[in-house]
Description:
The protein is of the alpha/beta class. It has helices at 16-23, 51-63, 74-94, 107-122, 153-162, 179-185, 208-217, 237-240, 265-270, 305-321, 323-342, 371-380, 393-399, 415-431, 442-446, and strands at residues 32-33, 36-37, 39-40, 101-104, 140-144, 165-169, 190-196, 221-225, 244-248, 259-263, 281-284, 289-291, 347-350, 361-366, 383-384, 386-388, 404-408. Strand 7, helix 7 and strand 8 (221-225) form a beta-alpha-beta unit. The longest helix is centred in the first third of the chain and has 21 residues, at 74-94. The radius of gyration is 23 Å and the shape is globular.
Amino acid sequence: MSSLASPPHAASALGDAEVLELRRDFPALSAEVNGQPLAYLDSGATAQRPVSVIDAEREFLVTSNAAVHRGAHTLAGLATEAFEDARATLADFLGADPDEIVWTSNATDALNLVAYGIGNASRGRGGEAARRFALAAGDEILVTEAEHHANLIPWQELAFATGATLRFIPVDDDGIYTLADAAAALTERTRIVAIGHVSNVTGFIAPVAEIAALAHERGALVVLDACQSAPHRRLNVAELGVDFLALSGHKMLGPSGVGVLWGRGELLNALPPFRTGGSMISTVTMTEATYLPAPQRFEAGTQPVSQAVALAEAVRYLERVGLERIDERENELAQRMLAGLALIDGIRIVGPAAGVPRAGLVSFDVDGVHAHDVGQYLDAQGIAVRVGHHCAQPLHRRLGLTATTRASAYLYTTTEEIDRFLAAVAEVRPYFGVATPAETSISTVTGASA
């Protein structure tokens, strides 16, 4: 039984006491690693799942498992109802219509669906309605230098296939850019703008609505990678002003193997499908086929039904806690990490400066110690972080780094875990012999923003 039997007061802060209650819903967080209590600071990669989400998927598999939109038997009807109820839940979560929600295997799949659909339109598929998407030599696709590979490589491939030019909004030495930078990169030939809402490396929060307005003035489509924002902050597609949005279930308390593409209805119904086969067709002859309206036209084959049901429960869990409260809490934890890391010699932090709102993650470089060694040292203390280039090689190259260490918080992260992390980071350089133990005590570091 979840500890969230009823929604908390919307105005109350999400404090340590409530976080400790929430943690009871997450079995994985009670584990020990290397003899230490697990401090899971890798939610930016994959979030842990509450019992209610695990139970929702299991309950569906036990009582309602069947192929959806196929068959007239009772079980198929129950499965289809659960599947479409999950779609409606995700639509409400985004302020959208259910017919604008397309199930995918993850956000990468969703972004590829859009890019390859536009590629098909550029080859003449989709008829008159799809001509609005067609690209040709001289057209421009605009991304940012900070994109995750999932929101970069599909557009590289689309540019290669169509002759369009791929351009990017540059970032500064901290890995961030401004609205003015975006405006300067837009031209009259810009046809697509694809950006991440929140950088998975820097925690930078993009001015999405403002960029979308500028892009639409030039007639460009806007595609938003919301993987790092949907789990943590309230989203409304109308307020964001974008045309397509992708998210992934496993980052927002849900299962792996399921994601969502949202698109404006008229665009989805005009976009040629990327994946074809059963369940997405209207009629088929031996020489041609016609396709169903969205969203079914993009849902060929067997769908991730139990995963969709579980993702809907994850959304309900997040809404019971309150997205605004989660966002506020994570910003506080991020500022605590920034303040503590700033007191440790040899640490270079990337992303927005202290005091500037950011997502609940911080990436940093430890002078003289490779990120993989930092990660292994922290793991020995029971602290799980992400190391590497975080699927953002161009951004790391711009920053002059091959890899960084990233700590990411979520609604179940405690202040004590952040302080354990800071204390352990302070020990890294002395442990590897590249610095003497700092005169600043560990208690001073961890109490920096108490």
